Amino acid sequence: MQYKVLYRKYRPDNFENIVGQNYIVQTLKNSVINNKISHAYIFSGPRGTGKTSTAKVFAKAINCLNPKDGSPCGECEFCKNFQDNPDIIEIDAASNNGVEQIRTIIDNIKLAPSNGKYKVYIIDEVHMLTPNAFNALLLTLEEPPSHTVFILATTNIENVPITILSRCQRFDFQKIAIEDLVTRLKLICEKEQISASDDALTEIAYLSEGGLRDALSLLDQLSKNNEEITLELVEKQIKIVSQKNIIDLLNLIEQNDVEKIITTIDEYRSRAIDYKNLAKKIIDVASNRAKNIKKSGRIERLNFEDYKSLILKLTESISKFNINVDSYVILELMLLEFVNTNNSEQTNVSKENSQEKTANIEEVDNNFTESEKSELSTEFIERRINNCFVDAKKSSLEDAKLMLKKYLESVNATGKVRSILLDSNVVAASDKNLILTCNNEHNVITANNMLQEIEQVLNNEVGKDYKIIFLTNKKWLQEKDAYIVNLKQHKVYVYQNEEETKQDDIMLTDVFDKTKIEII
Q1: pTM of the model
Q2: More confident call, 220 vs 353
Q3: Domains (ranges, CATH) in the chain?
Q4: Which of 73, 214, 220, 511 has the least C-beta neighbours within 10 A?
């Protein structure tokens, strides 16, 4: 006998087997019981949540000769011959989306059903119809023959014209809860004699993102190993990390363990762990911690606002995910941002009350030790800014960003220089000068105090002779605004020798176009 994949083998054939859509199921059953059948329905929702399966069960139920509590009996002639019934027409709008296909439907609906009470048209992925096809469907959808029922299904309800929506009863399918998915998976494992641990099934349910079809596909894939499906097997085969791994990673941030954080992220990168799945799991664990902090009022090193900021950054990174960018570089930077490298005062803050802790943290942030104060003079910093603007070009900026990205991804990018550059962003560049920004003043001071070392390491790696200066975001915005003002006044930048220390040097802006630096 030919093998049938699990999601096809266990496709629901009655309302009782539809998972996680109780309200919709009960409403449709009541329609059958009370014989109140609408002429058009639209089922919307994420993939794998039962839209098409529910449409088929409903089509069977309204034609069943002996429905039981609104569900098809499964025993009458219509139920037994449902798969080959010519009165149930299923159309894939993704490949049959033209006006000609809709006109064919219009011509055929005039014919009475050959077997049951209703002729049912199930149009899947209806949002893929062309505008002309939607227009052709409008009048028929509003006043079809009494023996015709339309069931439209879509994963993108926003792409369906409002004129179509207004003519249908709408049912919104929700993602299936983890608990419901696990229950269904356990039942199928028992029937198929598949050995699987509870935590493995929970992980499969999580990975399916609320879709039973995806969950069954994963179970099918893992069961082919002919061994017990464990959490370790799921992690290995699907290339994901467990909940425990995520908790351990966040604990490393709490403990300020920079080396282990970098090592862990490098390990995930080498294992080709799916970035989006990893980011979503961090969001889940971080959100639980944030809620627990709010509920309990506990004082932790990472507070509610820290976790909230991390969650927002991760969410943004997922929405802007780009396969041309090493996402793990971004993730590593985001996580390291929440590490406190100055442990002396902040980690010993009294935990008696949150106000005292906040005050102490602000004191640490705003009062640098002697070793943390900038070793560069204001004149030197201003000269480097000026000299970068003398010949700044957008092409040089793009080259510098690419150069920095390649360096951070290279095997030679290690140590403190790499950590600093991970927290940096190139905002202006010429062939010989770079301006970089960091997220906070402490990092800027540290970077400028290591300027010679950073220049040597970076220039040796990329074969350039860049002179670099680091600025805070606030300082950069001031310089950028000054540039725009001076640009309008047609002033000119003049190269300044860094060895000169005259106090009356004036920084001017040249007559170059706006493409020379990036106006953010």
Answers
A1: 0.56
A2: 220
A3: 6-172 (3.40.50.300), 178-238 (1.10.8.60), 243-346 (1.20.272), 372-488 (3.30.300.180)
A4: 511
